[in-house]
Amino acid sequence: MASSLLSSPKPSSFSSANPTSTPRPRAQTLSPFRAAAPRFSHGLATAAAAANPSASRRCYHRAFARPAVRHARRPRIHTFIATSEIHMQHKLRKTPEQVVAIAKEMVAYARSLGCPDVEFSPEDAGRSNREFLYHILEEVIKAGATTLNIPDTVGYTLPYEFGKLIADIKANTPGIENAIISTHCQNDLGLATANTLAGAHAGARQLEVTINGIGERAGNASLEEVVMAIKCRRELLGGLYTGINTQHITMSSKMVQEHSGLHVQPHKAIVGANAFAHESGIHQDGMLKYKGTYEIISPDDIGLTRANEFGIVLGKLRLNIAHLTLRKALPGLLGYEITDKEFEDFFKRYKEVAEKKKRVTDEDIEALLSDEIFQPKVFWSLADVQATCGTLGLSTATVKLIGPDGDEKIACAVGTGPVDAAYKAVDDIIQIPTVLREYSMTSVTEGIDAIATTRVVVTGDVSDSKHALTGHSFNRAFSGSGAALDIVVSSVRAYLSALNKMSSFVGAIKASSEVSESQRVQTTE
């Protein structure tokens, strides 16, 4: 769990966040309790266990808890106990007096270990009796608590209620000026971020949040939502700021997703895939004219980069807008200009993909560009491919290629799988002996409709290449790549890419040989 310490240029401006609160008379504030820490040996701890189980518990905790935080840069021990009537009665089965006594004892014990920062949380504070809250918080402050964390444990309160709770605690708890008020809001009703901001406005100066809002049940208040809300609406929060470098938000979010396996929904605020994407026609029109019409936060502020600067969602709808947007964006994506012919060839492929996918991502565009633009001289191009496979029969493939002279050639083949069958059909047409050395396939994006990129390495009977150092001839390898929604089509495109490179190389060798032979003939004559 991450926590954010808030700062304010004018701390006193929040002293009366809730004007309707009536402060109680404040008792004299006591200094934090620092008890001397007696040392116990294992023998003494065992002897104490028989005479006093509570003392044994303290000995055990002293032996194992003390080393855990003493080397931390900012050591803290966090203690908590439930304070709502429903928790005390049904879970703890203890009286309010017993709960106060336990809270005081544990806070004092934590301070006795030498830990300078002890945080105390009255669990389920949102449903706790206010007067009891003021009382237990006063007692733990006397015992040495330095941070008072107010949790809405079950996400029950509304923003107005939670803000008033923080303001009332600030106004009615004796000794509160010696502690930092913290918030910890759950998202059961979807109000964790709103409640956290209400708490900050009312005087809380530590906000307990999590990246991507992960946590128990419906999760916790989301770090990225809280931080960006404070940054975006700082003037309405009395100038509060967090000091967090927001440009690391996107990368942090992705890292948490990767390591936790908990992926955020596409429409998640700030870090969702759709957070800075614009699909509605009227929104796209506004974005193309001025980005401030529909974006209150710049994606640059959270470290997000996108292929097209306007965040236009590209798909099968509004192809005219996609054509205009891509023509403007591709030079920036590639780093150099492409010809109109190259763009039209790419856009033809784009439309084919857009007809099958609701949304074409930046990664899809890059894969299509690589497959269409960065290809060798075309001798053979794919017209059609049809494959069948399964457990009921042999895998077969029918391939139609367009040759160097523009003629169409068709072949059918049987293989161990659809890709093997398709490759054998290609070999039957092209008639260049090859050996497949490497074959790999990756998914460009997530989902069943992701574009597949294939890379192959082939060798043939082209042994006219010579090693630069030894002079020995070797069999040259040729690589090829392809991309398509269909894995068989992607595989055939990659195979043809490698074969086209090989054909180009063979053609160059033959041309060189013919020139040499012609020169020898002329010399003889």
From TrEMBL:
The answer on whether this UniProt entry bears the keyword Zinc-finger reads no
Q: Which InterPro entries match?
A: 2-IPM_HCS-like, 2-isopropylmalate_synth_dimer, Aldolase_TIM, LeuA/HCS_post-cat, LeuA_allosteric_dom_sf, PYR_CT
Query: Which residue ranges have biased composition labelled Low complexity?
Result: 1-16
Q: Which region is the signal sequence?
A: none
Can you cite an annotated GO cellular component? chloroplast
Which residue stretches does the UniProt record annotate as biased composition, category Polar residues? 17-30
Q: Which GO terms describe its biological process?
A: L-leucine biosynthetic process
The pathway noted for it is: Amino-acid biosynthesis; L-leucine biosynthesis; L-leucine from 3-methyl-2-oxobutanoate: step 1/4
**Which transformation does this protein catalyse, written as a reaction?**
3-methyl-2-oxobutanoate + acetyl-CoA + H2O = (2S)-2-isopropylmalate + CoA + H(+)
Mind telling me which SMART domains this protein's record contains? LeuA_dimer
Stretches of the chain forming a coiled coil according to its record: none
Q: What is its EC number?
A: 2.3.3.13
| Protein name per its UniProtKB record | 2-isopropylmalate synthase
Annotated source species? Oryza rufipogon (Brownbeard rice)
